[in-house]
Amino acid sequence: MTYRVTLIPGDGIGPEVTRAACTVAAATGVAIEWETVDAGELAIKARGTPLPDAVLDSVRKNRVALKGPITTPIGGGFRSVNVALRQQLDLYASVRPARAIAGEGTRFPETNLIVVREATEGLYAGVEHWVDRDHTAAETVNVITRKASDRIVRFAFELARAERRKRVTAVHKANIMKTTGALFQTAFREMAAKYPDIPADERLIDNMCMQLVKKPEEYDVIVTTNLFGDILSDLCAGLAGGLGVAPGALYGDSLAVFEPVHGSAPKYAGQDRADPVAEILCVELLLRHLGEREAADRVFRAVWETIAEKKVVTYDLALPGYTQRPVAPSSCSAMAREIARKVPLVDLTAPLPRPPSAGPAGAADPQLEA
Ligand code: NAD
Fold first, then answer.
1. Which residue has the least CA distance to atom 25 on ligand 1?
2. What tens digit of pLDDT does each residue of 124-144 get?
């Protein structure tokens, strides 16, 4: 069977990391026919819009897509191509697993949690305006609906059940946001009652940030609204080793788009330096979505072993300041080839290897802090 999947290379480092991801996908032996469509800067040049109908049509037809990051044009036109894509395809669930890989680049080698973020409304609904002509006051409306809250919390409980996760934690600020926060909280409590087999609890967003940087290993599935989820998913990416290794997925009722948490990193574009792991782990998530479980396990395992072995890794996993085990950095394409080489060779029954000095990592990562 051949799967037809939309491929959106995107901007900046997008073409490099999606090429790397396709190299690894090919190594799994799963037959995927990529239908490549351009969004972002290339699409603006060719068609005058960063999000042509052809992109939306392709995703609707194939129902599954692999996407690179897209630069948000500064100035007029779209608020953000990424936000527009989510809204137009009703990709309401943004799912970001934060898994520390081989204990590298993290102070929290046991981190293994999933942030489920509502992606269509909240403070990103685009309802905002200047209050006066002089632009001395402004308002952004936080749109929270019962329908969107119900479906995102249901999604989180279904995910927890399917992946045998131990707990779902809702994050909100219902003590201060007495309408929007309370609406989301009520939706969560009523949905939790329908899933008595899955322990459920709640945290206020400020407390959650503190809890996560102290003991992330205590959390499992976190479900929250759009802005809180955006912030928490980057925080959790940092806990798990940085943007270079953080994949993501966007789900609607019948569509799925896989994209890394990171952006287009324009300063590294065209240099073959960017870490391809986040995009490669998007392929892992995509294969799981297609039901190709063994191929997905092989990709995850090959990534893990490559990082643990640390012979062919990009700068963010190699250089002093990013890691306690510095080595010479490799290129994006070389790391992808190394992961692809390992994919058919890995032993899925062996325990995951730990590198010699895995554990609390060194200094903060200056490049990935932005
Ligand atoms: P960014 O994620 O592109 O970069 C943040 C930092 O991380 C930079 O220092 C960058 O060099 C580094 N970095 C990111 N990915 C890396 C990788 N794979 N390997 C090594 N280093 C990496 O964030 P930004 O600079 O705020 O945004 C750049 C552009 O990307 C903006 O136009 C933004 O709107 C867009 N963006 C798009 C998406 C998306 O397409 N989903 C997500 C976030 C940002």
1. 265
2. 888 999 999 999 999 999 999
Does the CB atom of residue 370 touch ligand 1 within 6 A? yes
Percent of the chain with pLDDT over 70: 94
SS (H, E, C) the chain: CCEEEEEECCCCCHHHHHHHHHHHHHHCCCCEEEEECCCCHHHHHHHCCCCCHHHHHHHHHHCEEEECCCCCCCCCCCCCHHHHHHHHCCCCEEEEEEECCCCCCCCCCCCEEEEEEECCCECCCCCEEECCCCCCCEEECCECCHHHHHHHHHHHHHHHHHCCCCCEEEEECCCCCCCHHHHHHHHHHHHHHCCCCCCEEEEEHHHHHHHHHHCHHHCCEEEECHHHHHHHHHHHHHHCCCHHHCEEEEECCCCEEEEECCCCCHHHCCCCCCCCHHHHHHHHHHHHHCCCHHHHHHHHHHHHHHHHHCCCCCHHHHCECCECCCCCCCCHHHHHHHHHHHCCCCCCCCCCCCCCCCCCCCCCCCHHHC
- CA 246 to ligand 1 centroid distance, Å: 12
- Tell me how far the alpha carbon of residue 221 lies from the centroid of ligand 1, in angstroms: 25
